[in-house]
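Hi again,

Forgot to attach this to my earlier email, sorry! This is the prediction with iron/sulfur cluster bound. I've pasted everything inline since the attachment limit keeps bouncing my files.
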Amino acid sequence: MNLTLKIWRQSDAKSQGKIVEYPISGIEGDMSFLEMLDVLNEELITKGEEPVVFDHDCREGICGACSLQINGEPHGPDRLVTTCQLHMRKFNDGDTIFIEPFRAKAFPVVKDLMVDRSAFDRIQHAGGYISVNTSGNTIDANAIPVNKDNADDAFAAATCIGCGACVAACKNASAMLFTSAKVSQYALLPQGQVEATDRVMAMVNQMDEEGFGNCTNTGACEIECPKGISLENIARMNREYMKASIKG
Ligand code: SF4
Ligand code: FES
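Structure tokens for the complex follow:
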């Protein structure tokens, strides 16, 4: 395939960025999107030009690092896949592909296509944990019965990889899908009840402090989420928040 890439280049957080055009040829359908960018970067390095900076780690759809806005969609045109799992067979010979970083005030651009998503870490640190007594009298986890539906829903919520596509897809740059997945994975389990009140208050407050917008039920986050995290988690977080507010 021969393609035209239009890529966002920005030297640092303070500089003004711009779209730069790069023609690329010899791209195979079986290549991943990131492998296609590797080919471009090898060509740029050979020519003595600066390679395009983009985030990646596992390249297996599990770390959430690869955050690219491809033709206006977080993680591109495929569904339930991350950018690293997107294959070039989803594109056609002669296509022009726009590649930009995830856009949100709370995700400032570090360089080119790499953004700083440490705001997510701070939300997680605010309450995304449980306290377990490890002083020798711990209860075996299997000794606590968990309703099967709750276990399944908690597990589904826990598959969130913190990629930020939900924020990039949202017209309000809301982080409600991410935060609600992190709240839900504990709210549905007995082990999560001890800190439930403090957790939801702290995580929602941190989310607001970071500058993410609110949810207005558009649902774009759920469509673009590579892990299929359900909007039901947002409804659950709102209920948890209301309960916590009443308790004080
Ligand atoms: S909810 Fe989905 S889109 Fe949002 S951070 Fe988690 S995995 Fe990514
Ligand atoms: S590089 Fe880890 S999810 Fe894409």
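Helices lie at 33-46, 118-127, 148-158, 165-169, 176-187, 196-209, 220-224, 232-247. The first helix runs from residue 33 to 46.

That should be everything now.

G.
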